[in-house]
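Work through what follows:
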Amino acid sequence: MTPDPPIQAQSLLQAKSMAERLSLRKPMVLAFTRDGNPKTGDYGDPKLIFARGDNLPEEINDMERV
């Protein structure tokens, strides 16, 4: 399986909606948010918005949910 390029959403609601629609045609979909500073490259831990698919990575179970 080859991942598609990431898609940036403008809000949590948009990210969840997009992920739900994509999950109808993709074998696995993950949506997450994280705080960060692109200028310094410092990012916080990701928080899960949506996950669906076969054989999801185990790390998904440990992620904080939004």
The CA atoms of residues 5 and 29 lie 12 Å apart. Helices lie at 12-22, 59-62. The first helix runs from residue 12 to 22.
